[in-house]
Amino acid sequence: MLVNATQMLQAAERGHYGIAAFNTNDLEWTRSILLAAEELQSPVIIQCTAGAAKWMQGFKVCADIVRDLTESMNITVPVAMHLDHGSYEDCFKAIDAGFTSIMYDGSHEPTFDLNLERTAEIVKLCHSKGLSVEAEVGGIGGVEDGVASKGELADPAQCKAIADTGVDFLACGIGNIHGLYPDNWEGLSFDQLEKIKAEVGDLPLVLHGGTGIPTDQIQKAISMGVAKINVNTDLQVALARAIRKFVEEGKDLEGKNYDPRKFLKPGFDAIVERAKELVVTFGSDGKGWA
Ligand code: 13P
Prior knowledge:
290 residues, alpha/beta, eight-stranded parallel β-barrel, 16% strand, binds 1,3-dihydroxyacetonephosphate
């Protein structure tokens, strides 16, 4: 059964560990994430952007894949099906499709007031249906789904205003960016994180751009109130690297390894292993509940 993400993130914020939110792209990808979470008895958030949903023929197919797999695989740990970086319009589509958790990313709206107004509206709607809501203050830099933006430090007063709408968890820019970090990246701004946390109290915070942040910085952020860490590129790189190795070793030419189930298997095995490593780094292993 899918759950919303509120309870698992509140427990993580209190217990100073982080829950991984892995983006998915298809059925086998979802299966790999679920295998890793179940094996380590960790709660997990599976999330999908509008771009990935389009690739999977829509939000409904995406949500159905996650729901059906949790049942057919007898998954016992809590699993949330989350919309990642939803536009205002995407939120309604994902709610209708059966997502249990919604991110309304109003950081790209022309004014902060519009972000605030729409966040409040989405919170009201989602809470009336038992869904959790993530909002965002301060754009997360990098390129995602072809959209480039520069990393920002979120304004603590704006974080407080969004927190007061009743959101369940909040993404705030603290120098993090999507995709691979450039060599001259300055690292996370813990000063900013401290100021934001002072304003929002025990509201769980979300760290986007989890790929490539040094482990000590991730763990420090978790100790300061980050409870959800979004990871996408990392698993994509793990899959690509494993398949490249398979081909470079000429294994695709052996037997019937041209069968996509065999050709892609090393990639999905690599996702399971990498997801497990990250769950251990974030400290959510053994924190699942039936
Ligand atoms: P990465 O691709 O950098 O891991 O970022 C993922 C993310 O933040 C999704 O919202």
